């Protein structure tokens, strides 16, 4: 099965794999039998397949890596073959990453994500972020690097290149306890987007979302109806709850209130840029958050999107978070393994 995953992750047909194996090639029929478990490959054959699929030979010997459910949340229908190829790519990248971690035997604190918080409303998600920030000992400070924070908590972040289909990210547990978050480089073009997506996927890992019934949901929205101005908050869904969690983690409501106040009729681009630069959250997400917290009404919300965001989707020229989020740990682990192997050979 691992050979099939490695092959498909590289978008190789069986014929392509045979071609890449060069003078160590075996027949297409033999590869088919190996993938179906009908033929046991030699070490030489496995080595040739590993080279052709760009994975270490040890990749095929580590069987104790149970990967949990992968929820891709595709935004549009895709062919079954393409979906399987994407799944194989992600599984292969997770296995390569954790194999390198196991070889180095690096240790890190674990956030202990086994106890998932019951969430039914946006307010529940907001409260979880307050508790989590306390647990992480970051208080109300901006998160310097989401990737670094996760790594220090034992949450693994892997960046992959998934073309098309608007996949932003996904998350899963390996061996039921190792949290892994996947970020798609092709759709997360900015640092702010990477930070938001990583936290959104964390929400999927730690929140046990059980949405309110329609009647209860209406009662939950009553507080917005009592405002002297119109704020229309969308009905909660799992994805919107995770969005809310990510935004609240990036900029706590108390910090936003101190920055812009509790009630505003207008927000300036300069204010929004300043928040983006300090907290590493996109201007679009800031506007959403101001609306969710009833700082601005529907009219100003629509005005900001019509006249700012919709005319500059990438927010080009509007500042930018100065710290680059880069998931380069696998590369660094591989370099370390290579160096330590060289040192062992010298002894």
TrEMBL record:
Organism domain of life: Bacteria
Family statement drawn from the similarity comment of this UniProt entry: Belongs to the short-chain fatty acyl-CoA assimilation regulator (ScfR) family.
Name of the featured protein: ImmA/IrrE family metallo-endopeptidase
Organism this protein belongs to: Xylanibacter muris
Ranges where the HTH cro/C1-type domain occurs: 3-60
UniProt cross-references to InterPro entries, sorted A to Z: Cro/C1-type_HTH, IrrE_HExxH, Lambda_DNA-bd_dom_sf, Rad_response_metalloprotease
PROSITE patterns: HTH_CROC1
SUPFAM superfamilies linked to this entry: lambda repressor-like DNA-binding domains
């Amino acid at each position: 099965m691992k050979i099939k995953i490695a092959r498909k992750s590289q978008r190789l047909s069986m014929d392509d794999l045979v071609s890449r194996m060069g003078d160590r090639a075996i027949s297409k029929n033999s590869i088919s039998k190996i993938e179906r478990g009908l033929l046991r490959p030699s070490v030489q054959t496995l080595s040739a397949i590993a080279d052709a699929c760009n994975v270490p030979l040890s990749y095929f010997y580590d069987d104790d890596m149970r990967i949990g459910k992968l929820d891709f949340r595709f935004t549009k229908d895709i062919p079954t073959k393409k979906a399987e190829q994407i799944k194989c790519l992600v599984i292969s990248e997770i296995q390569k990453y954790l194999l390198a971690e196991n070889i180095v035997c690096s240790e890190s604190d674990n956030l202990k994500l086994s106890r998932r918080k019951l969430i039914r409303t946006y307010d529940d998600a907001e409260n979880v972020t307050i508790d989590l920030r306390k647990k992480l000992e970051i208080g109300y400070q901006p998160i310097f690097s989401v990737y670094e924070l996760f790594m220090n908590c034992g949450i693994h972040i892997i960046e992959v290149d998934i073309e098309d289909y608007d996949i932003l990210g996904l998350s899963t547990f390996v061996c039921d306890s190792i949290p892994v978050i996947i970020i798609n480089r092709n759709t997360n073009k900015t640092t702010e987007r990477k930070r938001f997506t990583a936290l959104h996927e964390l929400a999927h890992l730690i929140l046990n979302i059980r949405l309110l019934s329609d009647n209860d949901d209406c009662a939950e929205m009553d507080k917005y109806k009592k405002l002297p101005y119109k704020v229309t908050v969308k009905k909660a869904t799992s994805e919107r709850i995770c969005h809310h969690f990510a935004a609240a983690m990036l900029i706590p409501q108390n910090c936003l209130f101190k920055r812009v106040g509790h009630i505003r009729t207008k927000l300036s681009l300069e204010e929004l840029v300043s928040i983006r630069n300090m907290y590493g959250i996109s201007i679009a997400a800031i506007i959403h958050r101001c609306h969710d917290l009833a700082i601005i009404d529907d009219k100003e919300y629509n005005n900001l999107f019509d006249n700012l965001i919709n005319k500059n989707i990438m927010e080009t020229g509007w500042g930018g978070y100065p710290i680059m989020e880069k998931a380069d740990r696998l590369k660094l682990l591989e370099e370390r393994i290579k160096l330590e192997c060289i040192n062992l050979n010298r002894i």
